[in-house]
Amino acid sequence: MRDFKTLLVWEKSYELAKSIYSVCAKFPKEELYALTSQMKRTATSIPTNIAEGCGRGTDKDFCRFLYIAFGSANELEYQILLSAEFKVY
Which pLDDT band holds residue 88 (cuts at 50, 70, 90)? Predict the structure, then answer.
């Protein structure tokens, strides 16, 4: 079992999630239950999965959760690109 708070990747993803919340607060209100909601869930899932993986008993389980976090990071990248394309912020 690892302490997720000691991992730089967790720290960076935690900061990213907080930044996404700040940015989403500037989006138009009509996006509240659409893109902003999805972006916030996606952003928080990154550090959440890293933390959960740290609580697992094996390196294999930890790696699986890192892959899930990486998938969420890619999903968030797409959502940021989409929001920039439509200039919703």
Answer: low
pTM score of the predicted model: 0.92
* CB-based contact 57:44 (threshold 8 Å): no
- Residue 86 backbone phi and psi in degrees, to 5: -95, 0
Say how far apart CA 4 and CA 39 lie, in whole Å: 22
Report d(CA 49, CA 45) in Å as an integer. Answer: 6
In which element (H, E) is residue 68 found? helix 59-85
User: CA torsion angle for 57, 58, 63, 66 (degrees, to 10)?
Assistant: 10
